[in-house]
Write a structure and sequence with these properties.
Blueprint: E1 4-11, H1 16-25, H2 30-38, H3 52-59, E2 66-67, H4 72-77, E3 83-91, E4 97-111, H5 116-119, H6 152-157, E5 160-163, E6 169-170, E7 176-181, E8 189-190, H7 194-203, H8 238-248
Parallel strand pairs: 1-3
Antiparallel strand pairs: 2-5, 3-4, 4-5, 4-6, 4-7, 7-8
Helix pairs in contact: 7-8
Length: about 250
């Protein structure tokens, strides 16, 4: 039986010190320099994990994305064929955050020993990605600040996920705005447009799930969601729901 998780990554405004130190690393890294130039206009994670930017640059398509730094617990539980539904929380004006439905990644391969990314020829195109966490010698290597100094090794020991470019679907050009958080309420307010309502019904309402993407006003506010633990009242299977979500992207 396949598993699926709903996860949120954040496109926020990094502190000045983080921007300055990352820009120093970009002096000799044209790809990182390009990322920094487009970051505020796009729907990317600070650190590019999932690696939607690097995938587009390396392969010409975001469906080749990988996942290798965040959500160690989720990556540890994934197997080939499982899926991750991604939303981008994009920082707006003041305390507001806007939530965009960016895609569904289907796990195509898990690299359990990360040093293999540097040893095997078939992974050559991934070696410029920003979410590898290690260099060719197995030492910590991160282009973005702040680096994960305390737990980089634990993060790197969880599988490096390669999403299947054929069955994964990501839209970074015009991802659907589905909800907004005002910085005060316990959870975000979902939009009334038909596509956003359909996404909300598929993931939450039709499965009797009361929570939404945001679970707290402070702290770790976007706890992962495993919708497979609930039953769809319309009788749809999890694969059927995932396919419906892909069609909405």
């Amino acid at each position: 039986m396949i598993k699926a998780y709903v996860c949120v990554y954040r496109q926020f405004r990094p502190p000045e010190v983080a921007q300055r130190k990352t820009k120093q690393n970009a002096i000799k890294n044209p790809l990182l320099e390009e990322f920094l130039e487009t970051y505020q206009k796009g729907f990317y994670d600070w650190g590019d994990d999932p690696s939607l930017f690097a995938a587009k640059e390396a392969f010409g398509c975001t469906n080749h994305a990988t996942w290798g730094v965040c959500r160690r617990d989720v990556r540890n539980s994934l197997e080939k064929g499982d899926s991750v539904v991604f939303f981008c929380a994009r920082q707006g004006g003041g305390k507001t955050w806007n939530y965009h439905f960016v895609g569904v990644g289907t796990v195509g391969e898990l690299v359990r020993d990360r040093i293999e990314l540097w040893k095997r020829r078939k992974y050559k195109e991934y070696r410029k990605f920003f979410n590898l966490l290690i260099d060719a010698q197995g030492n910590q290597s991160e282009a973005f600040h702040p680096a994960h100094k305390k737990d980089w090794k634990l993060r790197s020991e969880a599988p490096y996920i390669l999403f299947d470019p054929v069955t994964s679907v990501f839209n970074l050009d015009s991802p659907q705005l589905v909800a907004t958080w005002d910085g005060i309420a316990d959870k975000e307010d979902w939009n009334g447009n038909p596509k956003a309502k359909k996404v909300e019904r598929l993931i939450f309402e039709d499965r009797g799930i009361k929570r939404r993407l945001r679970t707290s006003r402070i702290g770790f506010a976007h706890v992962k969601l495993n919708p497979a633990k609930s039953t769809d009242k319309c009788g749809r299977t999890l694969p059927e729901i995932l396919e419906e979500l892909k069609r909405l992207i």
